[in-house]
Backbone:
């Protein structure tokens, strides 16, 4: 970060924040203003990593009914409630 000697930097603030999701990274600008004159001293774009999937309730798929000679079965599947990606089977 380059600081002009004529300015007194205040604490950095976040601006233009775009939230991360389970499918895309997010971002924000880290901005430092002068605590005296409020001029912008620096601006750096930062990345926010993707967040974890949000599990929805488990659903049954591929059900095979039991018969008198064979056991039945099904897959218990959990999908992400945001992007619909399969999380577990």
Residues:
């Amino acid at each position: 970060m380059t600081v002009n000697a004529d300015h007194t930097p205040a604490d950095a603030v976040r601006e233009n924040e775009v939230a991360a999701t389970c499918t895309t990274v997010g971002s924000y600008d880290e901005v430092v203003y002068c605590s005296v004159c409020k001029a912008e001293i620096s601006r750096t774009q930062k990345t926010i990593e993707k967040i974890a999937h949000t599990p929805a309730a488990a659903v049954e798929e591929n059900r095979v009914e039991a018969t008198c000679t064979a056991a039945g079965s099904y897959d218990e599947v959990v999908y992400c409630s945001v992007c619909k990606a399969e999380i577990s089977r």
